[in-house]
Design brief:
about 260 residues
């Protein structure tokens, strides 16, 4: 019985799971029989997986897991590495430990939270791992988007700007572009109550060895705290980001 709205996808994962669990490579006939699948559909799926190098076939027409899986595994490991570095380094920044600090990644037009250090006092907003919000309204999202051309960003949303969550939310690409331009000079982004009224967040991006923004970090405050904490927290947040970037292999330019 299919578990998704795409039966072919279910069959694909069944095949990959079977190959993974087996101690030896498998033939197409064995796979079809073991899973109770039609030979024709099994053949078509295997051919598609072969084309993408997700599996490969040996001289005896038996199927093995392929090299493309290393691409997925490497991406996952990279993200997990950022999470561990975040957890390892943040404990050395007492200024940040007073606040809620989040780590997230950009997934198309949304931000997905990866990890969070919770402030001693609750903010009234849940930053659980896996929670998704529109990137254009979040501090981490704006920070990561600032590294992309505006036409690329418009493509992410197919030209349709997301509906603001609060009355403070930016509501068009021109205004967003102005915000992103400001981030280029300061490396700091701002969510001024765009995700939740009364909550302000300062964010920045984290780059890998290739110079791509692979994650973002943000510090959250109650609005009444923002003005007094902004400058100190911004400086420390950038310092933490640069520490993580250095471990990821990004080369910072040294001043003469």
């Amino acid at each position: 019985m299919s578990t998704t709205a795409v039966p072919a996808l279910d069959k694909t994962f069944q095949i990959l799971d079977l190959i993974t669990a087996s101690s030896q490579p498998l033939t197409a006939a064995y796979i079809a029989k073991e899973l109770g699948l039609a030979r024709s559909s099994t053949h078509n799926i295997l051919q598609s997986l072969l084309t993408k190098h997700v599996i490969y076939k040996d001289t005896e027409n038996r199927f093995h897991l392929g090299s493309y899986l290393m691409y997925w595994a490497g991406k996952y490991e990279q993200e997990q590495g950022v999470i561990q570095l975040f957890k390892d380094f943040i404990v050395h920044y007492p200024v940040l430990l007073q606040h809620t600090v989040t780590l997230s990644k950009l997934d198309l037009g949304e931000v997905v939270f990866l990890a969070c250090h919770e402030a001693p006092a609750p903010l009234g907003f849940t930053f659980r791992a896996g929670v998704r919000v529109p990137a254009v309204f979040s501090a981490t999202g704006k920070a990561m988007l600032s590294t992309l051309p505006i036409d690329t960003i418009e493509t992410l949303y197919e030209g349709n700007f997301p509906k603001p969550i609060t009355p403070n939310g930016v509501d068009n690409f021109a205004s967003l572009s102005d915000e992103l331009a400001a981030i280029h000079s300061s490396r700091i982004s701002l969510d001024d109550g765009q995700l939740r009224e009364g909550m302000y967040c300062l964010g920045t991006y984290i780059r890998n060895a290739s110079g791509n923004a692979v994650a973002g970090m943000a510090v959250s405050f109650l609005q009444v705290e923002y003005e007094s904490k902004r400058n100190e927290v911004s400086a420390v947040l950038i310092e933490l980001a640069e520490q993580i970037e250095q471990r990821l292999g990004f080369q910072h330019k040294r001043s003469a």
